């Protein structure tokens, strides 16, 4: 049976639907709920909805967003990508992957969305030790990102009512196609929940950090897998090497 949903461009009008999809998805994750202690899922959805328009507009030149919508047009999944600074435009100076770029809004609307974002709740007080652990996770990420320009898979969320239908897989595959076309690797800071999807699609783990976070009121293991997708680049290098050897061989014969 063909999928009952399709991928589409996001606009600022999607803010409420994205707030609901994303927060409902992350609400199920113990690593996320550490941040939202004492809050309800509805409250967190409302706050995310206020932040969503700016999330879609900030760094528009390099951020790309895709939603999955069902037959009724309801948002059932969302994925956000960051292009490296070297790959935001084509050789004709047009935006790369334009169908995933959010349409711009007027300066007046932009200002209103900034104010709305600033009025939103951002997160509770972090438990002792969490900030330090987050810093160590951020340091590993920065170290890997400093090695070469990556397209970053920045956010992935599928509403719990739609789990297990291949929506996340399709969203990630869509970005992989773009990265392969542009000839760039992908980096993702992967949570346990999505690690299987990334591994199945060809991402490899380059580092990981997990620690017991029960004392912080979190899940037993808090942390992430650091994964990259670069098999198109590695394959290209092998073909180049092979071509070189064939050339050498024919010179000698
Ligand atoms: C993880 C998530 C994106 C998967 O979306 P999805 O559309 O159900 O994924 P798919 O149908 O394409 O693939 C399902 C796979 O995810 C796995 N999965 C889903 N939730 C999982 C969880 N909480 N823990 C472990 N595996 C999980 C399924 O077992 C299945 O694995 P398989 O491919 O190895 O068989 C979705 O559950 C979600 O939004 N979770 C909360 C947010 C999150 O963790 N985002 C990823 C951050 S890196």
From TrEMBL:
Signal peptide: none annotated. PROSITE patterns: GNAT. Residues 100-232 form the N-acetyltransferase domain. One of its GO terms (molecular function) is acyltransferase activity, transferring groups other than amino-acyl groups. InterPro entries: Acyl_CoA_acyltransferase (IPR016181), GNAT_dom (IPR000182), Trichothecene_AcTrans (IPR052523). This is Acyl-CoA N-acyltransferase.
């Amino acid at each position: 049976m063909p999928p009952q949903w399709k991928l589409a461009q996001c606009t600022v009008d999607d803010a409420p639907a994205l707030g609901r999809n994303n927060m409902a998805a992350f609400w199920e994750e113990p690593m996320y709920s550490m941040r939202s202690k004492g809050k309800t899922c509805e409250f967190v959805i409302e706050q995310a909805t206020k932040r969503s328009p700016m999330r879609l507009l900030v760094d528009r030149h390099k951020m790309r967003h895709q939603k999955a919508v069902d037959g009724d047009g309801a948002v059932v999944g969302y994925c956000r990508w960051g292009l490296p600074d070297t790959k935001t435009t084509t050789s004709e100076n047009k935006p790369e992957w334009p169908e995933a770029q959010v349409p711009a809004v007027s300066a007046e609307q932009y200002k209103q969305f900034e104010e709305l974002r600033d009025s939103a709740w951002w997160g509770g007080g972090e438990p002792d030790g969490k900030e330090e652990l987050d810093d160590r996770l951020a340091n590993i990420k920065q170290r890997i990102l400093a090695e070469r320009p990556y397209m970053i898979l920045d956010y992935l969320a599928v509403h719990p009512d739609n789990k297990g239908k291949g929506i996340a897989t399709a969203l990630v595959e869509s970005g992989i196609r773009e990265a392969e076309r542009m000839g760039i690797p992908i980096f993702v800071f992967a949570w346990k929940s999505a690690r299987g999807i990334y591994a199945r699609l060809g991402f490899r783990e380059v580092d990981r950090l997990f620690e017991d976070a029960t004392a912080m009121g979190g899940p037993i293991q808090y942390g992430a897998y650091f994964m990259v997708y670069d098999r198109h680049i590695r394959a290209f290098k092998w073909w180049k090497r092979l071509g070189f050897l064939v050339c050498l061989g024919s010179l000698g014969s």
